[in-house]
Design brief:
Helix content is about 35%, strand content about 20%. The protein has about 325 residues and is α/β, with parallel strands linked by helices. Strand 9, helix 8 and strand 10 form a beta-alpha-beta unit. The protein binds 3-(4-hydroxy-3-methoxyphenyl)-2-propenoic acid. 3-(4-hydroxy-3-methoxyphenyl)-2-propenoic acid (FER) binds next to loops.
Length: about 325
C-alpha cells in the first residue's frame, strides 16, 4: 500500500476513536488511576474539563432573592444538573467571584469549564450531581457603591458573609431541592472570592464541610501590596478556627506558581494556618497565572477530595 493511503487510513481510524467520546478504555483507565486516591493533581485532567458527547451538562440560569442584609433584591447565577428534579436532593457549591465581578463572572466565561468538570465527575459516579450557585459577592446596601482598591470600597465584600448566611443560603434551601448541612454544603472562591472563602470558613466552619480557596487575594490579615493597604479582616494570630470549632472535612488553599496578581499571599495564608494549627491542604499549580488553569485545578481537586472523603469517611 502506498504511504499516502496508509496515512489516510490511520487518520480515519484516529478520527473514529476520538469521536467515540469518553468511553474509551484509555479514559476509563485514567479515571480509575486519577480519582481513587486523595492525591492532588496540579492540573485538572483533560478527561474532566473536556466536553463529552455522551454527557448532558447543566445550564446556568439566573435568579434573585431579597437580601435583608443589603435591603435590596440581589441576583445569583445557578447551575442545575441537566436532569434536575424535585424528586432528588442535591449538594450545593457556593462559588465566589473575583474583584469587580458579579453573579455572571463564572456563568459567562465558558473557559472555566465548571459545567464540564461538575458534569463529567458526576457522570463518572465520582460525585453526586451538584448544584453550583454563583452569587454577587458585593454586598452593599447602596446600589451606587462600586468596588475599588481602597478600604471603604472593599467593605461590601467582607459583608458578604452576612448576605450569604442570612439571606442567600436560606433562599437557595427553600427554593431548590437541596441537601442541607455541612457535609452537603461546599464553598469555593477565586481571588477576592478566595479571600472571602477563607474568612467565611474560619468564621462559620460549622456551615461548610468542603472548601477551596483559589488564588486568594490579600487582606485577610493586615498587609500592603501594589494595589492598596489592607487593614486585615483578622490579626495573624486569629487566622485559625476557634478552639471548640468543628472544622471542614476538606479545606484547600491553592495558587499558581506564576500568579501575577496575588503573588505569594496564598502561600502566606497557608503558612499562617499551619503556624496556628488550622488543618488544610496546600498546593501550587506549576506555571499557572491568575487564571482559569488555577480555577479548573481548584474545582477539580475540591470535587476529587469530596469524592474521596465521602467514600472513605462520611
Ligand atoms: C488586592 C489584590 C488583588 C486586592 C484585591 C485583589 C482588594 C483581587 C484580585 C481579584 O479578585 O482578581 O490588593 O485588594
Amino acid at each position: 500500500m502506498k504511504k499516502s493511503k496508509i496515512s489516510i487510513i490511520l487518520a480515519l481510524m484516529t478520527a473514529a476513536v476520538c469521536a467515540c467520546g469518553s468511553n474509551t478504555q484509555g479514559e476509563e483507565a485514567m479515571t480509575a488511576q486519577n480519582t481513587e486516591t486523595n492525591e492532588i493533581d496540579e492540573r485538572c485532567p483533560i478527561t474532566y474539563d473536556a466536553t463529552r458527547n455522551n454527557v448532558s451538562y447543566g445550564e446556568f440560569t439566573h435568579g434573585t432573592y431579597y437580601s435583608e442584609t443589603c435591603q435590596l433584591e440581589r441576583g445569583y447565577s445557578i447551575l442545575l444538573p441537566a436532569d434536575y428534579s424535585q424528586d432528588k436532593k442535591y449538594p450545593v457549591l457556593y462559588l465566589l467571584h473575583g474583584i469587580f465581578g458579579d453573579e455572571y463572572s463564572f456563568s459567562q466565561d465558558s473557559s472555566n469549564k465548571i459545567k464540564e468538570i461538575v458534569g463529567n465527575m458526576a457522570a463518572d459516579g465520582l460525585i453526586e450531581e451538584t448544584i453550583v450557585v454563583c452569587p454577587n459577592m458585593y454586598a452593599t446596601s447602596d446600589p451606587d457603591q462600586k468596588p475599588g482598591f481602597d478600604s471603604e470600597s472593599v467593605l461590601p465584600y467582607d459583608n458578604f458573609i452576612n448576605d450569604l448566611v442570612n439571606d442567600l443560603m436560606p433562599h437557595i434551601e427553600s427554593t431548590y431541592s437541596v441537601l442541607t448541612g455541612r457535609d452537603n454544603t461546599y464553598l469555593a472562591g477565586f481571588s477576592m472570592g478566595g479571600r472571602e472563602t477563607i474568612y467565611i470558613t474560619l468564621k462559620r466552619p460549622e456551615l461548610f464541610g468542603y472548601v477551596c480557596a483559589i488564588s486568594s487575594a490579600p487582606g485577610v490579615v493586615p498587609t500592603k501590596d501594589k494595589f492598596m493597604s489592607h487593614d486585615g479582616q483578622l490579626q495573624e494570630s486569629e487566622m485559625k478556627f476557634a478552639d471548640d470549632a468543628v472544622t471542614p472535612n476538606v479545606f484547600i488553599i491553592c495558587c499558581g506558581t506564576r500568579d501575577s496578581v496575588v503573588g505569594t499571599y496564598p502561600k502566606q495564608y497557608h503558612e499562617l494556618l499551619e503556624q496556628n494549627g488550622a488543618d488544610h491542604i496546600w498546593y501550587e499549580i506549576t506555571g499557572a497565572d491568575h487564571d482559569n488553569n488555577a480555577i479548573k485545578s481548584g474545582l477539580f481537586n475540591l470535587f476529587k477530595q469530596i469524592a474521596y472523603d465521602k467514600s472513605n469517611n462520611h
